[in-house]
Design a protein that fits this description.
Length: 317
């Protein structure tokens, strides 16, 4: 089996030469926040075929950012770039086309029907906040509690100067899409774990996927990518086989990027003794909570410890 490629990059930034500085600023903010981008000025190499590079970029990225300005709306090549994203997602259900307005302009035609992130008139801090909030595609509920609306109706009542934070929880929606990453040599452990996870899946708290569920005739890369980006919980079955597997290491590294963006949770599960502390997830506490590998413990107790750990993370069904 051919080695897996990393999942698609997050964004292809489509822009005109006049808006190059805006495109670079947008891509820089996104990459600093942990996203990945393809940008013509960074990634299209001298001597390459621009049209082929553009086609490859639209295939290798999940979403296309259109940097909206009067120049962009009147240029020829950008129309092909945003049209490719629109064709893949004509109802905007997946947000594959994401317009970002950087100068005053009025989109027309198909672009007029798609909501855009508006950076016009904002200072850098406000623009960055609007950008990151817009690309996250989450509910607009604020991170802090709004002030009590009735406070001013009570004589002598002082306005609250503090607010209670609402921590974002990527596992809030049930069932939690769960991706098990494991080495082929550890299939028996994966099957064993699934038996213990069955009550959680049966109760509607988890929906489990792993590469063992890929059907004959399915494209391994395509199915892996699709479930990777749907997943909100990654269970890493860590062993020497896992650590030495390029596919497992790559998937763990990509999962940690989502973990660090608070877009998913990564839960390492230690199957057998190995040096995992130097890996991309080396700063996370593994399960079982004792830090002992499953193969050194009584199996029932080890798996129950993992289940109890998951129950602490998951909302009730």
């Amino acid at each position: 089996m051919a080695p897996l490629e990393p999942p698609q990059k997050d964004f292809f930034v489509s822009y005109t030469r006049a808006d190059k500085k805006w495109a670079e600023w947008i891509a820089t903010q996104l990459e600093d926040a942990g996203y990945t981008c393809i940008l013509q000025t960074w990634d299209f190499l001298p001597g390459g075929n621009f049209v082929l590079d553009m086609q490859k970029a639209t295939i290798q990225t999940r979403r296309t950012i259109a940097v909206l300005s009067p120049d962009y709306l009147s240029a020829l090549y950008p129309q092909a770039e945003w049209a490719a994203a629109f064709t893949q997602d004509p109802t905007s259900e997946d947000g594959k086309l994401l317009p970002i307005r950087v100068q005053k302009c009025t989109p027309s035609g198909l672009l007029a029907a798609i909501g855009y992130i508006d950076l016009v008139g904002k200072d850098e801090q406000k623009a960055r906040e609007a950008l990151l909030k817009g690309v996250a595609r989450r509910r607009g509920k604020p991170d802090t509690s709004p002030a009590f609306p009735g406070a001013s109706t009570f004589p002598g009542a002082a306005a609250s100067s503090t607010s209670t934070p609402f921590p974002k929880n990527p596992l809030a929606s049930l069932p939690v899409e769960t991706f098990i990453v494991y080495a082929r040599e550890d299939q028996a452990y994966r099957e064993e774990l699934e038996r213990y996870l069955y009550p959680l899946e049966n109760a509607g708290q988890l929906h489990i996927w792993h590469q063992g569920k890929i059907l004959v005739g399915d494209e391994i890369q395509k199915e892996t990518d699709r479930h990777f980006f749907k997943a909100k919980l990654f269970l890493l079955l860590v062993s020497s086989y896992f650590i030495s597997s390029p596919d497992c290491s790559m998937l763990a590294e990509q999962a940690m990027k989502r973990h660090n963006l608070n877009d998913a949770r990564v839960m390492p599960i230690l199957l057998s003794a190995c040096y995992w502390q130097g890996s991309s997830f080396g700063k996370l506490n593994p399960y079982p909570k004792s830090g002992k590998a499953i193969n050194t413990m009584q199996r029932d107790l080890a798996y129950l410890d993992i289940i109890h750990g998951l129950q602490e993370l998951l909302p009730e069904a």
